[in-house]
Specification:
Blueprint (H helix, E strand, L loop, with lengths): L1 H22 L1 H9 L30 H11 L14 H14 L3 H69 L8 H31 L5 H4 L1
Family: Belongs to the mitochondrion-specific ribosomal protein mL64 family.
InterPro entries: Ribosomal_mL64, Ribosomal_mL64_sf
Keywords: Cell cycle, Coiled coil, Mitochondrion, Nucleus, Ribonucleoprotein, Ribosomal protein
Length: about 220
């Protein structure tokens, strides 16, 4: 029901506007063009000055920035002391520091560029020296890698041969093949290692005794 009513009102409005434009279109344009709003006048006789002591006054109306706006709008009628609007020593120092940081002099800019180029050159030279040193070490590094690879391969080969020897010894001792993970095999390996250590210790002691008992040959005896 609301849709037909809205359509009817829209049609009436369109006919009204069409009639106005067809009857006197220039008058409507002239009326629109001649509209001159009344200028906004400042109330200098009774300006609005917020009470900073009141709790109802907003906090942003108690700031120094708002005081500057009041003085710029009303002048001395605002009751603001223009000396209070001047920045403090700390603010001036901060402004000067920001200008020095973001707006350096030409000499400072040239000096900074020179220092930056010098730093980049030192980094590049250090990198080149490191590359040269590593390239000089490359043959030795390759030789060491190949030696370690051969030693690792030889050790794996020896471990495999020793493992097969121990398995064969276990088969001969017990009369059947043992699982390398079985407790009986591990116990036998511990005994074999203990015997080998004992033999090495005896051999070392025998060599020491032989060296002690050997006669010392002097040059006179040799002649």
């Amino acid at each position: 029901m609301a849709a037909p009513v809205l359509c009817g009102r829209t049609a009436v409005l369109c006919r009204t506007l069409r009639g106005i434009s067809s009857s006197n279109p220039c008058g409507l344009l002239l009326q629109t063009a001649s509209y001159n709003p009344r200028p906004l006048r400042l109330n200098l006789s009774d300006p609005y000055i917020p009470d900073k002591e009141s709790d109802e006054t907003p906090a942003w109306q108690k700031t120094a920035r708002y005081d500057g706006k009041l003085y710029g709008r009303y002048g001395s009628a605002s009751g603001v002391d223009p000396a209070s609007l001047w920045p403090s020593h700390e603010q001036l120092d901060r402004v000067v520091a920001e200008e020095r940081e973001w707006q350096p002099t030409l000499e400072e800019m040239l000096r900074n560029i020179e220092l930056k180029e010098k730093e980049e050159a030192e980094k590049r030279q250090a990198k080149e020296r490191l590359i040269a040193a590593n390239m000089a070490k490359m043959p030795k590094m390759v030789a060491d890698w190949r030696r370690e690879k051969r030693e690792t391969k030889q050790k794996l080969k020896e471990d495999k041969a020793r493992r097969e020897q121990l398995l064969e010894e276990a088969r001969v001792r017990f009369g059947y093949a043992l699982d390398p993970r079985s407790p009986k095999f591990l116990e036998m390996v511990a005994e074999v290692e203990k015997e080998e250590k004992k033999k090495k210790k005896l051999m070392k002691r025998r060599l020491k005794d032989e060296q002690t008992a050997a006669p010392v040959t002097t040059p006179a005896d040799a002649s």
